[in-house]
């Protein structure tokens, strides 16, 4: 038993004696090596904890860059600095100025800026459409008389007769309170629409800061075309809606042939606009939607009475026995009438020139005096 205990304690004594016999330099060298290895591991751990990963740094860099880009378009004069909005008189550049003012002043994203600007400009034009709707309604009441006078103008043989017919037409319009200048109100929409179209297309092509990220719903990129053609279909639907209700003023009376044309044209616009940027087609949709709401309001009897607008007169029903004309026939009839009108106008102008020459010749002949010499 004692031998077994001594055998187990022998390695401990040998280790202690070996430590006493080893030189101190050897022990110090090994302790330094152990301490240096542990210090290196500790430093590596601290570096891994203190340094961020490369992915986190890249994400932060992207965020900072995006923030800087977003702030660039929120400065007045930014569009001019990239070659846009150079003047205030050309419609596309004027619209770009207005869009920038709204965007910077409100801080709204670009899709909301386009929407608010479109609605604001259409609201400013609304009083003119009220006047135009009243004029068209009054004009519809006397349409049979106007058509008869128009036929008289076509059949007039000389300038004097044509002037009599024109005076008759002018008196008829004045007696019924029709002011033809208000009939041109919807025409004002044309330069504005062209301004929005060209202005937004230029901004999309220039890749204005925020245009590629500040869309909405499924069209986040306003510089790219709508991949689903949803905006194009919605735009065609609202155009068909307000044309069926009576146009921008709610009082326009279209012939059956013209109604067919107005239903076909919006459908044709879908493939025609499929490659346009979402920013441009968004304007088409918002503008068309405002037109539907405006037309609905102008067709409301209570609103018309409150605003003093004349009631809309429904056209007489078409004769069911009359031959039905197709779209091609309607175009041909319209072209023939326009051609006859132009020929009649040219003929009357020629007669007027001849009459002026005869009057000038008579005036000169009347001024010739016979001078006799006095008698001596």
Automatic annotation (TrEMBL):
UniProt membrane topology term: Multi-pass membrane protein
Lyase is among the record's keywords: no
Subcellular location field: Membrane; Mitochondrion inner membrane
GO CC, alphabetical: mitochondrial inner membrane
Domain Membrane insertase YidC/Oxa/ALB C-terminal, residue spans: 110-299
Biological process annotations from GO: protein insertion into mitochondrial inner membrane from matrix
Keyword hit for Oxidoreductase: no
Swiss-Prot/TrEMBL keywords: Membrane, Mitochondrion, Mitochondrion inner membrane, Transit peptide, Transmembrane, Transmembrane helix
Region annotated Disordered, chain positions: 338-358
Transmembrane portions of the chain: 108-130, 182-204, 224-243, 263-286
Matching CDD domains: 5TM_Oxa1-like
Record InterPro entries: YidC/ALB3/OXA1/COX18 (IPR001708), YidC/Oxa/ALB_C (IPR028055)
Molecular-function GO term, any one: membrane insertase activity
Family: Belongs to the OXA1/ALB3/YidC family.
Descriptive protein name: Mitochondrial inner membrane protein OXA1
């Amino acid at each position: 038993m004692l031998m077994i205990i001594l055998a187990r304690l022998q390695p401990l004594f040998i280790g202690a004696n070996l430590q006493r016999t080893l030189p101190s330099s050897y022990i110090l060298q090994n302790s330094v090596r152990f301490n240096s290895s542990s210090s290196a591991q500790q430093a590596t751990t601290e570096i891994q904890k203190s340094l961020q990963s490369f992915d986190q740094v890249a994400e932060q860099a992207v965020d900072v860059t995006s923030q800087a880009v977003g702030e660039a378009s929120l400065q007045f004069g930014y569009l001019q600095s990239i070659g846009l909005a150079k003047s205030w008189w050309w419609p596309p550049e004027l619209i770009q100025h207005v869009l920038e003012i709204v965007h910077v002043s409100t801080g709204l994203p670009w899709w909301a800026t386009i929407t608010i600007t479109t609605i604001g400009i259409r609201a400013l034009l609304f009083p003119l459409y009220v006047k135009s709707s009243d004029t068209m309604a009054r004009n519809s009441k006397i349409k049979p008389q106007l058509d008869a006078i128009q036929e008289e103008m076509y059949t007039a043989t000389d300038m004097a007769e044509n002037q009599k017919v024109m005076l008759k037409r002018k008196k008829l319009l004045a007696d019924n309170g029709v002011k033809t200048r208000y009939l041109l109100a919807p025409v004002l929409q044309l330069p504005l629409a062209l301004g929005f179209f060209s202005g937004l297309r230029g901004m999309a092509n220039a890749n204005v800061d925020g245009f590629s990220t500040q869309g909405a719903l499924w069209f986040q990129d306003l510089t790219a075309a709508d991949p689903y053609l949803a905006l194009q279909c919605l735009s065609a639907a609202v155009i068909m809606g307000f044309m069926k209700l009576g146009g921008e003023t709610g009082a326009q009376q279209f012939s059956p042939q013209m109604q067919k044309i107005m239903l076909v044209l919006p459908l044709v616009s879908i493939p025609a606009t499929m490659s346009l940027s979402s920013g441009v087609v968004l304007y088409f949709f918002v503008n068309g939607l405002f037109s539907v709401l405006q037309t609905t309001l102008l067709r409301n009897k209570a609103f018309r009475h409150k605003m003093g607008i004349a009631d809309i007169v429904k056209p007489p029903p078409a004769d069911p026995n009359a031959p039905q004309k197709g779209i091609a026939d309607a175009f041909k009839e319209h072209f023939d009438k326009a051609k006859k009108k132009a020929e009649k106008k040219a003929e009357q102008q020629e007669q007027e020139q001849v009459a002026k020459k005869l009057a000038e010749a008579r005036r000169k002949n009347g001024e010739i005096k016979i001078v006799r010499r006095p008698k001596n």
